Amino acid sequence: MIFPDEYKHVGVSKALPGGAEEPIYFLTEYLIVEKENPDKGIPEYSVYHVRKSGDGLLRKVESLELIASGEEVVKYDKELNIKDRTLLIETAAKLCTGKVNTVIFTGVDRHVTIVHDPDTSAVLELEILDVAPPTPSWLSQVVRRLEASGIFGDLQVRFTENTIDLRQFEGENTVFPCSASGLAGKCLDSDVLTENGHLLVGCEISKTLFELRFPELAYSFVNICPFKSEIVVPTKPFITRCCRSEKSGLVSINGFEGAVVHWGASEYQVSEAVRKLVNGLKEKRLKEP
After folding, report:
1. 275: which strand partners?
2. Angle at Cα 169 formed by Cα 165 and Cα 172, nearest 5°?
């Protein structure tokens, strides 16, 4: 796949540069040449890789390597956020059928870039591992808001949800940590328990609180802490949350790399955690043989 890191590396011209007398801008690594097709009455495009030499803003063209031309190239007919690399790769993959192998994209600021031989496997998939309610889960809501803002555009990442619905445990004898959850059952922060046989659905903190408040009662326990749970389990690289702030950071659970944020983390902290995780995973990939 060819996908320039920045659109500033892509130039557009109506004709090929003619050697030393027609130098090229120093940042240009790829050149789109647009010509009118007299038979079809529409523009036709050729895309080149540029090799240049010299110093300064304008440099000598040493060679132009043709990447794609004619029916191999299409121009997407809508303006997109061309800083969103995942969006462009996935859009290009849908368009690259038959002879087409290259897509030209135009941004809302009228700058352009290209994707040649799009490879969707280059998009890193991250799992949002969380519990519900609320639905969507709190962490999913935060990540999706951040994703819509474009803050992850350069990371080339796609998110999927792995949400464990705690409503499956609702019942008269079930105890949840907090009444704010709205789950049907009893809650540690508001109910007094007097009988054995309750099911506690929570984390290690909930377990400790239960035993401090009701040391004489026998109970069963479903652990929803991602570090110890048998039901809240990642299936791929992930981001999740924990009520213990000291456990925040980059971790490995169930053989997968992930990031943990505090239960009450801000949007900024979530975005930073995602960025650190993705950068770490990319560095690890580069080191693999």
Report:
1. none
2. 140
Number of H helices, E strands in the chain: 4, 17
Whether 168 and 95 map to the same domain: the answer is no
Same domain, yes or no: 95 and 173 = no
Going along the chain, which residue ranges are E strands?
Answer: 10-13, 24-25, 30-37, 42-53, 58-69, 73-80, 102-107, 112-116, 124-132, 157-165, 174-176, 186-187, 198-202, 219-223, 238-242, 249-253, 256-262
Contact indicator for 53, 62 with CB cutoff of 8 Å = yes
Radius of gyration from C-alpha coordinates of the chain: 27
Residue 34 exposed, middle or buried by CB count within 10 Å (0-12, 13-18, 19+): middle
In a domain, 2, yes or no: no
Q: pLDDT tens across 132-186, in order? A: 999 999 999 999 999 999 999 999 999 999 999 999 999 999 999 988 888 999 9
